[in-house]
Every structure is written in C-alpha cells, then in structure tokens.
Design a protein that fits this description.
Layout: E1 3-11, E2 14-21, E3 29-38, H1 41-48, E4 58-59, E5 63-71, E6 83-86, E7 89-90, H2 96-99, E8 110-111, E9 123-127, E10 131-133, H3 140-143, H4 146-157, E11 166-170, H5 174-185, E12 190-195, H6 198-206, E13 210-213, H7 216-225, E14 231-236, H8 241-250, E15 251-259, H9 271-277, E16 280-283, H10 289-299, E17 308-312, H11 317-325, E18 331-334
Parallel strand pairs: 11-12, 11-14, 12-13, 14-15, 15-16, 17-18
Antiparallel strand pairs: 1-2, 1-4, 3-5, 3-9, 3-18, 5-6, 6-10, 7-8
Helix pairs in contact: 4-5, 4-10
Bound molecules: zinc ion (2 copies).
One zinc ion binds near residues 106 and 108.
C-alpha cells in the first residue's frame, strides 16, 4: 500500500505528522498533491478537542492549494496538472438556506478538514466539483491564502461600500488584515485597523494600513477621521468580548457593523446603541463560491506574501502549530513538498 505523510488530529491536544495510506479516489474525485496549507483559528478548537463536530482521527487543513495528479474522468475544464484550491464547504442541499441559494449557511454545514479529511498532507482527495483553478503563476503560499481571502471578500460584500469614507476593522489577525486590504482595494478612502498586539500593528503598517491600538486610540482616530460621527462601516474581526462591547460606540448613526470574528460564547452588546443609532448588524459566515473566484482574481494585486509569517515542513507540524497557537504571528503555513535536510 502506498503511504503518505499527513497532519493528524489524534485526540485532545495531539496533532502529529503520521504516515497514512494514500487516499483512493472515486469517480467524482481528484487526487491533489498539496503545495501549501495554512493553519486557521478554527484549527485551534479542533486540536484542543473542543470543536463540536471534529472527531479524531482526522487530517486537518481547509486552506490549501496544490496540483491535480489523478482524476478518473475529465470533468468540466479541469485536467491533471492543473493548479487548484478547494471550496471546502459541504452543504446538505435540502434545508431552507440550501434551497434558497445560500448553501454556505446550510443548517448542517460541514467542511473538509473538520468533518472529513482535509489538506494538511502530502496528498488529499476531494470532489472535483469543489475544485477551483488557480493561475499557473500563483505561488503556493498565495494559493493557500485564497480561502481566508474569500472570507474577507465575503465580509466586505455583505454591505455596499457606496459613500463609505471611513471603515474600521477590529482585529489584526489574518482575517482582519485581509478585510482591510479588500476594503482598501475597493476604494474606501480611510481604512483603520486595530489590535492589542504591537507585532500585528507593525505588520499592518508594513502593508500600508493605518493601524492603532484597540481601545482609546482606535476610537480617537475613527472620530477624528469622521468629524465625530463614527465609522460608516465597522468590520468586527476579533471575535472578542471587548470588541463586541466597543463596536457600537465606533459607528455612526445608520452605520453598519459586519461580524466576521467567530465568537466562542455569547457576549455583551449595547442594544441601546443599536436602537438609538439604528445600526445595522450583519453576520458574515465563510464565503460563497463567487467570493472564491473574486479572491483568486484579486490575490495577485494584494501584498499577501507579508501575511505569511512562518512556514514549516509537514514533519514539523506540531512545532508549527504551537508557534501558531501562541497567537503572536500571522499566517503559519505547512509546505508538504518541503523536506527538512
Ligand atoms: Zn479558515
Ligand atoms: Zn443545507
């Protein structure tokens, strides 16, 4: 039996590089040789053993890119040799969301890397229908950022940016940075981003973003730029109790709040501010397929290389994960094609 190396979640706090059999593809599937796969905040809860759906043993990873090496039949325009990423959502097809054009908020939404083996491995098998072609010249490190970039594209698409002068982004992790870059690329004159970590503010500044400490500094800057009114739109990308508490004070009357941050438990929100200022609060979960295509087309125009702060070989996946979990860095990638000497 042919074997391969994969990053396996083996139980609470156990992530190991393990030899497992090479996947055998079915008629509608393709085998992908993985170039790069990123860690995501949601991988932390899987590996901690607290994710409500993920069950060990599981190959993690849903932010991947690679090359098709095997297919049973040519399907659509894709061929072996093509560079691809995966749209990793698995929807039921029957619920209200699925039958009304919103399978990304399916009542029973599942994802590769959570509910089925993902792509942090030398190879991954995936439905051909989930694959999206990447330009040949796109580096693997950028290809692995298409999924988080699609999260940002989706978040920004939740609201019209017409007449938006000031957009505030709370949270300077990968999703916050990408959201700020997408908003800027759409022509928003003032995009402000905040975080509590100086290293993240520095990274944001190196991307040419206006970055300030969360709290008073953010509020002062937003109010200065908006002549005391507040931001036209605020993207909550921190998923923290403090950002939820403060966000309503940072937007103007009739302003919009888009929530991309994933909250692990209910938090306090100032409903009176929502009421008095008629604030519109919108959720934003994952992405639609069209957001992936927009992300693919946009990726090469953004300074994405800087967001990848570390990359590791697959053998070093446990070290890579503890580095990522410390939360001081931005994107940590696994490059399965790279072997330590
Ligand atoms: Zn992700
Ligand atoms: Zn559904």
């Amino acid at each position: 039996m042919k074997m391969m190396l994969a990053a396996r979640y083996l139980g609470a706090d156990r992530l190991e590089a393990e030899e497992i059999p090479l996947p055998v593809i079915g008629d509608e599937e393709a085998l992908i040789q993985v170039d790069a796969c990123g860690f995501c905040g949601s991988d932390i809860s899987i590996i901690a053993g607290t994710h409500p759906r993920a069950r060990a043993p599981l190959t993690v990873g849903h932010e991947l890119c690679g090359r098709i090496v095997q297919m049973k039949s040519s399907s659509g325009s894709l061929r072996p040799g093509d560079r691809v990423t995966t749209y990793p959502l698995i929807s039921c097809g029957d619920c209200h969301a699925c039958t009304h054009g919103n399978p990304h908020v399916c009542r029973q939404l599942q994802l590769f890397g959570f509910d089925a083996d993902g792509g942090m491995a030398e190879f991954v098998k995936l439905p051909v229908s989930s694959l999206m072609r990447l330009p040949e010249e796109m580096p693997g490190t950028i290809g692995a950022l298409i999924e988080p970039l699609a999260v940002a594209v989706h978040g920004v698409s939740r609201t019209s940016l017409e007449d938006v002068q000031v957009a505030a982004v709370m949270g300077g992790g990968p999703i916050g940075l990408l959201t700020a870059l997408v908003a800027r690329s759409r022509g928003v004159p003032h995009v402000v981003i905040s975080d509590i970590l100086p290293s993240r503010l520095e990274l944001a500044r190196s991307l040419g973003l206006r970055a300030v400490s969360a709290g008073a500094d953010l509020k002062n800057l937003v109010m200065e730029l908006s002549h005391g009114d507040g931001a036209d739109v605020l993207f909550e990308c921190a998923g923290s109790a403090s950002s939820a508490r403060e966000m309503t004070s940072l937007v103007r009357s009739r302003g919009v709040i888009v929530n991309l941050g994933v909250f692990k438990k209910p938090v306090e929100i100032d409903m009176q501010a929502i009421n008095f200022k008629e604030i519109e609060v919108l959720g934003s979960r994952v992405y639609e397929r069209k957001d992936f295509q927009i992300a693919i087309d946009l990726a090469m125009q953004l300074p994405l290389e800087k967001i990848v702060t570390h990359s590791f070989s697959l053998r070093d996946v446990a070290t890579a994960f503890s580095q990522f979990k410390r939360g001081k860095d931005c994107k940590v990638l696994i490059l399965p094609g790279e072997h330590e000497s």
